[in-house]
From TrEMBL:
It comes from the Bacteria. Keywords: Membrane, Transmembrane, Transmembrane helix. It comes from Achromobacter aloeverae. The lineage of its organism: Bacteria, Pseudomonadati, Pseudomonadota, Betaproteobacteria, Burkholderiales. The chain crosses the membrane at residues 20-39, 46-70, 95-120, 141-160, 317-334, 341-360, 366-384. This is Glycosyltransferase RgtA/B/C/D-like domain-containing protein.
Amino acid sequence: MHDYLFYVSRMLSGGPGGLFVVQCFVLFYSASAICGHFARSGPMAAAMGVGLVALFFLFPTLAGTVIVLWKDVVVVSFSLAAIATWLSGVRRFQWWKFFCVFFFLIIAISLRYNALPLVLPFMLLTVINPAGRASDTRKRIGALAGAMLVLSVSYATTLWRLPDFKRLPPVGNLVGVINLWDLTGVSACENLNLLPEGLESGERIPAADFKRIFDSRHLNITFTNPIWQAHVPRWGVDASAIQAQWRTVIREHPLCYLKIRNAVFLEQFGLHRHQVFYPTHSGIDGNKFGLQLAYPARTSALVQDIVAWSNSPLRRIYLLHAVALVLAVIAVWINRWRYDLLFALGLGIIGFVGLLYFAAPAADARYVFPSGVFSALLAILALGRITMWIRAKRPVPTTEGENSSRRLS
């Protein structure tokens, strides 16, 4: 899907820079539209929008990701576009808006399949309430069909390409690679060689070496370790053997499995004292297309600042997630626990982070960008609802004349 977006940008003479501008515009415009829907006045809408942008500067891993042409950014852009379009349809229903909601969701999920738990609670909300007060059985059935279409088309993009629908070759077995990374980590934790028999090309890797091999930051760092490459220049077994061994190992060594998954989680969310891993990307690799940075010196300075800022203990991304969820609980309680957008955003964040905990192939800061942006939006929306609730609880000031009239009446 990302290739298609690059292709469209190139056809429109935008090139990679065009896609960068569009993804940023869609992200911030959609987020501002969502804030504007919930604000009761122009100044409040402006304050919510400015607050959202400020969070990108306060938490540098958000800014560090948004300046790079990573799929994670486009996932969020089209997810927010779907939410903004749905809110517009709730206010004033039109069928073209209805169809655009599911079109945007198809793009978002096709870009990265871990976007599914992020937007699934929102998809459920569109089925429950597809058109606000104009919702009826027909629209709810249509929304359910749209949700099924989103899942079907997103899966189909892994099998066929557009526009000729040619069957795509099978991709590498990412699940098997992640399982092998887990096995390496558990081996380091237990001081045992728990790899499947036959994986190594010669002698088995000594148990003591796994602590030097396993790196919780990234599976590529682990598998490019010289010790690993000396013993495993290529897999000696297929992915099914690795997955079978993985299932056995996590049953027999669950505590060590959770320990190494915690290590990845701590790296990813900055829950440690050392430097945040990979908060941004510093440039463009040499390529045959002649693509290069327009302002390399400025880019280098910005990257250095983001790396330095991201290491502040008060600017780690886990804080944004935690604050957003706490504010969301208060805001949802104010709304009498009704299943609304804030509820759906909170569930999406929890589902996304939960999947990352068990399936992340690396601890890059960019992997939590989608849940980070949803957390930023959730925090702003929750603060807005709490502020309006507090204002509604305040007594309305009256003049002395009005008080006298009330006493006489």
